[in-house]
Design a protein that fits this description.
- The protein has helices at residues 6-20, 29-51, 57-71, 81-87, 100-109, 122-143, 160-190, 192-197, 202-230; strands spanning 155-156, 244-245.
- It has 250 residues and is mainly alpha-helical.
- It contains 9 helices and 2 strands.
Length: 250
Amino acid sequence: MKKRSKSNKNASRKANKASDKPASKPINKKIIAVIAGAVILISIAALCIFLSKEKSFSETLEELNVIDQENGMSLHDYDNGVSYLKFHPRFPKEINLNEYEGVIGDLEGVHELFHNLKEDTAAKLLVNARVALLDSEQHFRLATKTTKGLTADGFKCSERPYVEEASMNFNISVKQGRIAVEALSRMLDEYPEEAKQIDISKFWIKNLNKTYDELDDVNQRNINTIIYFCGKNGKDKTNDTNAIFNMTNA
């Protein structure tokens, strides 16, 4: 039998030693998760810093002007209140009832999350007012979309659900309108230079607020009339649920 050479023996020993060494450990998954989490947090922090940069009033106006041009609307559509606008539609294209939510979303998007975190900036007050006014307009139109919800020209007690729905929408319209009035009043008081840029004054705001007082009165008369003639429980006092009352003779 042939003897193995020393070189072969050495090679064999080295191979055995190499095989005895433990395999390299895989990278710990927890470490990978921690690193990935740190990267994500840093990215989010950088994004927040970028987004939280306060948008200037002029930048806000530019964005609002783009939305206004796309929809043929303006802050001064409301010079005479939402009721005037209802019966004097925008020209050449009115906003359809099913389009309001989209346009409101566009206005809200002018100051998305992280933009203008300070609620009292002139830009934020203006955006809030524009959103509230458009919401007010939408609900006024919902309240008046059918004459069944209005008692001024006569009604049936069976139409009470329509009157109640109209009353709910009138209430929302008035509430949103007063939110807009409050925002614009603050803007005028705290940021007179910016208020000049959108051409509003104490008289203008007072007139707008008056239109909501009038609308609130209309709503109260509307719901009180149906209660007076048809009772609180919805039953007609005349025992004729189809009786029609003409308010000019009431």
